[in-house]
Structure prediction request, 314 residues.
Amino acid sequence: MTTRPRIGFIGIGIMGEAMTRRLLDKGYAVTVWNLEPERLDCVVPHGAVPAASPAEVAAVSDVVMLCVLHMAAVEACIFGENGVASAGPGARLIIDLSTADPEGTRRAAARLQAMTGAGWVDAPVSGGPALARSGAMTVMAGGSEADFEQARPLLEEMAANVTRMGPVGAGQTTKIINQAIVGTGYVVMTEALLLAEAAGIDASRLPQCLAGGHADSSLLQRLYPQMQQRAFEPPSSYARQLLKDLKAVKQFSRELGLDLAVIEQAVARYAAYVALGHEMSDSAGVVKLYEHEARETKSGVGAGAGAAPGRERD
Prediction:
């Protein structure tokens, strides 16, 4: 893109807000829409222009970005009533930053191209709102080389690490693997914390002690301290979202003929956490599940929902 494109952004959740603010900081004109319009109040005062529908966003944008809950939400925003596709040949490129479905993404991209000629890059992200706000997150992208080259300058404004992993759908496939590592890692960090606390060592010094060794990771250095301090407000991610992602990992692995027990257990742990009423709680707060189970065991009630070993029912 030789001139600065007009940006449309659909989905102003925790990550959408951070990414929109980043684009505004970099001087882009950004038109925004969200299913719950009150969420626009967090970006409109900073220069974003509200729109009444995804179609209205597309009509005034060269590039439309989405960051919504799942594949069904992507399809609704693109192909639903007053969706992006109904605006005709407006936006020339879709950049889907959502965590969605690889096959669904391929179908949606082909359908939109046939309808409007627009290209599609699936570009799910990782790193959380703080890194999105500072432009330091990670993007795993899928799309044709030509579409990716159009998207790259924008993505590099928003992320420190941008990698094309293959054609459309490859970004979403990579995000599934990312979420397998993240979701199981959250459970491992929780159990490591509880081990440290129960053993009586200074649990707060574990990241410092293990830095540079094989156990070191961004999860240990960034997530573990949050868990150790029980610093879960405001949420930086929602438990229902991570559970949704982990279920997608499980389904994807089964479709490939794999039986991955650690992932199955992570799904069960987060299903139990959400079942306690923590749908909108921070994903890192899964430690609360273990503490709840420990209290119930101590009181003689039993291990609580989801505490029994085994796999979550489909």
Q: What stands out?
A: The CA atoms of residues 78 and 84 lie 5 Å apart.
